[in-house]
Amino acid sequence: MDGNRHRSTPLADLVKRIVDSYRAYPVTHHLDAMFLPNRERTIEIIELLRRLMFPGFFDEQRLTSDTIQYHVGDLLNQVRDRLYAQVREALRYEQLGTRSRRGQARAGAEDRAGREAAHDTDERAHRITMAFLERTPELRRLLSLDVEAAFEGDPAASNTDETIFCYPGVDAIFTHRVAHELWKLKVPLLPRIMSEYAHNETGIDIHPGATIGESFFIDHGTGVVIGETAQIGNRVKLYQGVTLGALSTKGGQAWRGRKRHPTIEDDVTIYAGAIILGGETVIGKGSVIGGSVFLTQSVPAYHTVSMKPPELRVSVRRAKGKRGAVQEEPAGGPPGVYDVGL
Questions:
Q1: Based on CB atoms within 10 Å of each CB, which residue in 16, 159, 200, 230 is the most buried?
Q2: What is the side-by-side strand order in the sheet with 211-212?
Q3: Phi/psi class of residue 169: alpha, beta or left (left: φ > 0; alpha: ψ in -120 to 50)?
């Protein structure tokens, strides 16, 4: 009896309050919408492409040279169908989604215009899908260079198979290269869904708009942030915690479309924790940026930037005094503290 009473009126009241909150905060719901990309289907596309880019690594069955032709054909069919469906939804969302959410659809001439626009969108989705698929051989070439860069850049790697299976940097750059192609094709939402999926999986946050050259390697990777308008050259190596960010976003949407993030030229190495900010900041070719450096100005080619070595306080802990306090004195010397420069 008591259980039934608890499940009736209070729950109905809570339902009403939650539904009322949807009306009060419309930006947090997508009710009555006709088109919206599906996050799970988009992630499926990434995983299918992973199998296409790295055959034999992520497949359940063993692949052979005799079966690879059939396998690739099957994968391409699956990618084409799923990608077309999600691109189509994304394009129609961009075109009609706002009107659908606000319930502003009209009859008559507007309905006919809407049908014509939908047909155009379907054609555009087909063109985008095929243009992306045409890029897959080039994507494989770029990824092969990234895999080699990961192996050559890390003595801890036993072989390139290990870098493909285990390295979050390789995983993140794979997803970025896919998302970046869709970004260049002006597909709404899908590239961001893909990049945030990689961010969640690897701890590496690369905006799909960032331009990244060949043989890119992120070592360890956790905490790396690369902004939308960052430009990275060839053979660049980043360590964990590096930020290529904007100087300020106080202007909000007024900054849209402007270069806000740094340019990193070829053969640059950036060590852990370095923060490089600003759209006018250029790190010249062959330069090395040390760990924990904070930069908002350009660096000429073939220069090294490092922090001034800090001083550490090193002392010896001795037994607790009568009141439980720990007293300190330096080893082999009079009471005091030694400064040790590193």
A1: 230
A2: 211-212, 231-232, 263-264, 282-283
A3: alpha
Q: Where are the domains of the chain?
A: 311-341
CA atoms of 293 and 272, how far apart (whole Å): 9
Chain centroid offset of residue 268 CA: 21
Q: How many CA atoms lie within 13 A of 185 on its CB side?
A: 27
Which tokens is 265 given?
Answer: 């030229």
- Helices of type H across 102-155: 109-134, 136-152
User: Greatest CA separation found in the chain?
Assistant: 94
Task: For residue 9, give the amino acid letter.
Answer: T
Q: Which residues of 292-325 are buried (b: 16+ CB within 10 A; e: fewer)?
A: ebebeebbeeeeebeeeeeeeeeeeeeeeeeeee
pLDDT tens readout for residues 250-275? 667 777 878 999 999 999 999 999 99
- Specify the amino acid at residue 271: Y
Element (H, E) at 104: none
pLDDT tens-digit map of 24-78? 887 777 676 657 889 999 999 999 999 999 999 998 888 889 889 999 999 999 9
Residue by residue, DSSP assigns 272-315 as TT-EEE-TT-EE-TT-EE-TT-EE-S-B-TT-EE-PPPPEEEE-
Q: Is 177 helix (H, G, I), strand (E, B) or coil?
A: helix
Q: What integer is the mean pLDDT of 179-184?
A: 98
- The predicted model scores a pTM of 0.81
- Please tell me whether residue 187 adopts helix, strand or coil conformation: coil
